[in-house]
Every structure is written in structure tokens, then in C-alpha cells.
């Protein structure tokens, strides 16, 4: 009897662990749908966002997180993430901070971007990890 209870307990545990796992994309989609705040219509310089996060993380989160932003800045890096999506990092070349823009579609970028090329990108701010992260980005 104890062996059967242990087996059911282990199966229940594994089921709960599997159901708790979600992909990054699903988490981002859910966060965007449930916490979306109004678009800040005017372009914000990437350097301003970086500066605000350096000064006060909580205040910057209150201002930018869960909000669509239009961000203007210089390209410092372009690469593909683990999901195969193009990521453009603005203003992060010589500093620990930058604005990482995960593009909504790889069709947005049809050519390699030049370092220091100025871009305007619209995306959804997810807060700061290593860099400030914008998801679902499109070129403006």
C-alpha cells in the first residue's frame, strides 16, 4: 500500500513540475496581455532609459516596465538568441548596460546593421535583467 501511495505521490509531483514549466515566449505573451500599459507616444533615447535604470531601478520600472515604448539609439550589437530571433542591442557597446530589443520577426531586419547606426524601435518593456529588455519589437 505504501509503495502505491509513493508511486502516486511521485507521479503527482512530476505532473506538477511539468505543468509549472513554460517557455520564455509564452511567459512574455502572458505578461504583455495581462499588464500592458499605454504606449509612450514620443521617442525616448536609449541612453535616457539606461541612465534612469542606473539611478533607480524601482522608479525606472514604474516608468517603463509593462509599457510599449518607442526607443531611439545607436546599434552596438546584433545577434540571434536561443529561440532564433534577432536581438538588437542599443547603446550597450562600451558599458554594462544597454537596451536589448528582441525583434517580433526576423523579417524586420533584412541586412546586417552597422555599429553606431541610429534606429528607432517600438517594443514592450519587460524591465531590466543584464540589459533593459524590450520584447515584440518592430522597426519604426
Brief overview:
The protein is built from four helices and six strands, in the order H-H-E-H-H-E-E-E-E-E. With 140 residues, the chain is α/β, with parallel strands linked by helices. It has one domain: Beta Barrel (OB fold (Dihydrolipoamide Acetyltransferase, E2P)), CATH 2.40.50.
How would you describe this protein?
It is built from four helices and six strands; from the N terminus they run H-H-E-H-H-E-E-E-E-E. It has 140 residues and is an alpha/beta fold. It has one domain: OB fold (Dihydrolipoamide Acetyltransferase, E2P), CATH 2.40.50. Strands 2-3-4-6-5 form a five-stranded mixed barrel. Strand 5 (118-128) and strand 6 (132-139) form a beta hairpin. Helix 3 crosses helix 4. The radius of gyration is 19 Å and the shape is globular. The termini are far apart.
Give descriptors for this structure.
globular; OB fold (Dihydrolipoamide Acetyltransferase, E2P); 5-stranded mixed barrel; 140 residues
Write the layout of secondary structure elements.
Elements: H1 2-20, H2 24-35, E1 37-45, H3 46-55, H4 57-64, E2 67-80, E3 86-90, E4 99-103, E5 118-128, E6 132-139
Helix pairs in contact: 3-4
**What gyration radius follows from the Cα positions, in whole Å?**
19 Å
Main sheet strand line-up:
2-3-4-6-5
Write down how many β-strands occur, each being a DSSP E stretch of 2 or more residues: 6
Number of domains: 1
Distance between the amino and carboxyl termini? 65 Å
Give the helices and strands as they follow along the chain: HHEHHEEEEE
The shape is globular
**What is the annotated CATH architecture?**
Beta Barrel
The computed structural class is alpha/beta
Please mark out the parts with pLDDT under 50 across 5 or more consecutive residues, or reply none: 8-28
